[in-house]
Amino acid sequence: MTSSTFPNISISTERLVLRPLDEDDVPPLTEMMNDEQVAAWTDVPQPFTEQAARTWITEYAPAERAAGRGLDLAVTEFLTQRLVGVVQLTKTDWHIRSTELSYIVAPWARGEGYASEAAMATAQWLFGDQKLERVELRTAADNTAAQQVAQKIGCLSEGVLRNACIVHVRGDDGVRTDVRTDFIVWSLLPEDLEGSAEQLADTGQFTAFTDWS
């Protein structure tokens, strides 16, 4: 059986457009990835350079999509076209029809519900257009903001992967230390969306355009 791949896609909500990353995203992506919270909760190299951003956009993201492993989407404000964040799909299994979803939001855009809106629209598209049956999220044990997003879109907490995550804690001396912690595993199934979609009134209906160019 040949592996499946995600299409080049643009997803629109009331406030957001999710689209493939392009080279115009290099400066804002670089700035976002050097944020203190991103550095703490993710494994992106620090400091994150413009060359790293360009490699991600022009090499890594296209290769992941072509191989059927995942999809990287820029999340932008509909009105200003500013880069709000990134939604990533990884570890996609086309036999089980599951994928792992993660999200990063720029510091200036936090607190607006953008992560929930983007994650919900992506999940609706995955279950509808792509006929997936499971979306998985993993959040570090102390990352309450990421956990709130998972709860808001209707995910169920399935359990804990003990000692499976490394976070990067900056001490009083300014030096980062790797600290082991737990991953909380969340899942979202098509039937879970029915209730949560109504609660996320701000999301509105999403529109998907394939073969985005």
TrEMBL record:
Name of protein: Protein N-acetyltransferase, RimJ/RimL family
Question: Which InterPro entries does the protein's record reference?
Answer: Acyl_CoA_acyltransferase, GNAT_dom, Ribosomal_N-acetyltransferase
Stored Pfam families:
Acetyltransf_3
Q: Which GO terms describe its molecular function?
A: protein N-terminal-serine acetyltransferase activity; protein-N-terminal-alanine acetyltransferase activity
The alphabetical list of record keywords is: Transferase
Q: What's in the GO CC field?
A: cytoplasm
Q: Where is the N-acetyltransferase domain?
A: 16-191
